[in-house]
Design goal:
It comes from Gymnopus androsaceus JB14. By secondary structure, the protein is of the alpha+beta class. Helix content is 44%, strand content 11%. It has a five-stranded mixed sheet with strand order 1-2-5-3-4.
Amino acid sequence: MQSQPATIVPILLPRAFLQPPVSEPSEESLAAASGSSFSGQPAAFIRDQLESLGPRLLRTVGSVTAEVNSASLPKELAVIVNDLTPTNYPTHMLAVYAPVPKNASRASIPQTEVKLYPVHALLMASHCARLGPFSPSPTTDQIPTPASNPSTITLPVRPMCLPSPETFPVLLNYLYLRRQEVLFDAFLPTEPSSEFVDNCNSTEHVISLAKDFGTKFNASTLLKHVKVIQGIWSNACALGVFDEGLWAAIDSCYEVLLNVLAIGTSTSSSQA
């Protein structure tokens, strides 16, 4: 039986993922997230102060366990903090879900999948200019003390519709850690060169990495990582995240992948 020729499906990719006009979080949002400690500090100052605390805060939210026993999303949730030496309790639980597909009939709409993420409101508010104020939380001004057993706290639940819920954990980890390696691990199919990590904005390093990847990865693998970059980009636009390190990683890693795909396309055409 004669085999059928492979079907070639063209894929159109944008030349770049553009950054929206930069804006800063409102004073109202910062005040709501700060509690009694707010005295007019600008968002940039708060971000700088949180950067050194980020890894410690991430360890605490990573220790949180919770159970939802109802079919509907509760307004607040009792959670267990297993970190015995937290510096700051999380203040809210984000309930992240995807938007309903446009033009979908009611019968065809799948059940909404919701993922829960404990967060510190001040960290989210200081980074996300398009995120409205958080509701009051009993843990905002609470100072934890070292304990011999896990603590139980109650967190307000905040629903959050995002275009790419599946990539939100990567963005959230980056906001806590402010380390581009978090993004490189998600955006690229393998660890990049140390030169690229040190200066991902360098055209020379971008081209060098693209040539290296071109000998190792096929188009399918590369396109999976393009989808991750697109997801992080869409979430950053929706939330209003304008962190320079984030956007540098988006631009440079996408440029690497585009160059690899271009090299592969050029090679295939020349061999045809």
